[in-house]
Amino acid sequence: MDDPEERFTDLYDRHYRSVLGYALLRAERDVAEDVSSETFLVAWRRLGELPEPSLPWLLGVARNLLAKQRDSRHRRQALVDRIAALTTSRDQQAWDVAEHVIDRESALEALAALPEQDVEAMVFATWYGLPPQQAASVMGCSVRTYNVRLHRARKRLARALRLGGGAPRPVRSLES
User: Fold this and answer.
1) Running DSSP on this structure, what letter comes out for residue 121?
2) How far apart are CA 54 and CA 47, in angstroms?
3) pTM for this one?
4) Per-residue confidence (pLDDT) for residue 148, from 0 to 100
5) How far, in Å, CA of 92 to CA of 120, rounded?
6) What is the rounded distance in angstroms from the CA atom of residue 149 to the CA atom of residue 5?
7) CA 149 to centroid of chain Cα atoms
8) What's the CA gap between 43 and 5, in Å, rounded?
């Protein structure tokens, strides 16, 4: 086959179920579907380099993508755990405005769903109170890049809170 689209379609038709089955044995359905799709995206980009037989190569790509997913989840969870470990019982007993604005569990779930780099950017700004110059230095990027990352991270967090049911509760007025 000389037509790349036909070649890719044939590759996809022959091997998608096998790649998905492999991923399903190692991850939940949504992750497995994402990994399978990304595997074929890599295959499309490297279509001219695919070996024959191509199934072992596709399974190797899927295996690597699953490992990256797993590592990313572990790093994200470790960061959430570190934040939780740094929270003292006094922090939990003290009156916290955030407790009255959103549900704590929804906030933790929203944070856990964010990419590690987003959480890291927000932690440097809010938890440690680092100015952009210092936070950028820690993250190994320019101040402009850090500011863009922080802005995008805050937008993603706000979106995750809205989608996760963490909509703000009405605040009681002082008159009631």
Assistant:
1) H
2) 10
3) 0.47
4) 94
5) 22
6) 36
7) 14
8) 12
